[in-house]
Amino acid sequence: MAPARRALVIGNSDGIGLVLTRRLLDEGWQVAGLSRRPSPLDGAPGYRHVVADVASPGYRRAVEGLPAEGPVDVCVYCAGVGRLLDVADLDAETEVFRVNLLGAAETAAAVLPAMLAAGRGHFVGLSSIGDGISTQAPSYAASKAGLSSYLEGLALVLRPRGVCVTNLRFGFVDTKMAKAAVRPFMITTARAVDVIFRCLRRRPARLTYPKRTAVLAWLLGAATALRLWLAG
Q1: Which has more pLDDT, 158 or 64?
Q2: Which residues contact 174 (CB under 8 A, 6 or more apart)?
Q3: Which domain CATH number covers 97?
Q4: What's CA 188's distance to the chain center, in Å?
Q5: How many structural domains comprise the chain?
């Protein structure tokens, strides 16, 4: 019998990460998870959980200690935060970058060397269609823009060495992260996990879903670019 596939899911105590973890376990994967809060799945057969904050100084050691039997086949970075801009509290903006961008980079630095040594593996980062310029949540948009750029650069460099990297750009998903007053074409967490499994099968460098939300984002980006041009 072939050994069970092994996955590491970061940010999985709720939302997309929790639904993804359940689905992986249901399909026979061995899963390790990490999040700031305990997981409702802790103790489930085939599952191991660690409580840690991706923005904490000890995060890298926590990640490196999770896969106990060699490199994982898949690592999915689901951790993310989003804040609407409050110009009276700009210090809060820095947390968004620590979680959305630096946490993902720390995770990549922790898990990719073992994948490269094995010549196989898949790293998936959940970015956003909103990775452009935003006046409502500039830290979220900028951190996701950095994440998208980083993932796609890694994808081009690592694929010839057997390791795949996917930049998965979602629109609105029905989680606590969806804070906008208007959320067009919002999808369920179950649908989002279906898309992640599509990524795991096809291993694209970039996948944007849904496309019609991307069209709206492009139009908003064009309007913002016009505003910047007029302001200049």
Answers
A1: 158
A2: 186, 187, 188, 189
A3: 3.40.50.720
A4: 16
A5: 1
- Which of 13, 134, 139, 148 is catalytic? The answer is 13
Mean pLDDT of 112-133: 94
209 is catalytic: no
Annotated catalytic, 140? yes
In a domain, 1, yes or no: no
Reported as a single tens digit per residue, the pLDDT across 25-79 is 999 999 999 999 999 998 899 999 999 999 998 899 888 877 556 689 999 999 9
Average pLDDT, the chain: 90
Q: Where in the sequence is the domain holding 225, given as residue range(s)?
A: 6-231
Mean pLDDT of 103-130: 96
Q: Is 179 noted as a catalytic residue in this protein?
A: no
By the 8 A CB rule, do 169 and 128 touch? yes
In a domain, 158, yes or no: yes
Catalytic residue list contains 13: yes
| 75: number of Cβ within 10 Å | 28
State the catalytic residue, choosing from 47, 59, 77, 140.
Answer: 140
Beta-sheet strands, E only, within 154-215: 164-170, 206-209
What single-letter DSSP state applies at residue 123? E
Describe the strand order of the beta sheet including 30-35 as a list of residue ranges: 47-51, 30-35, 6-10, 74-77, 122-128, 164-170, 206-209
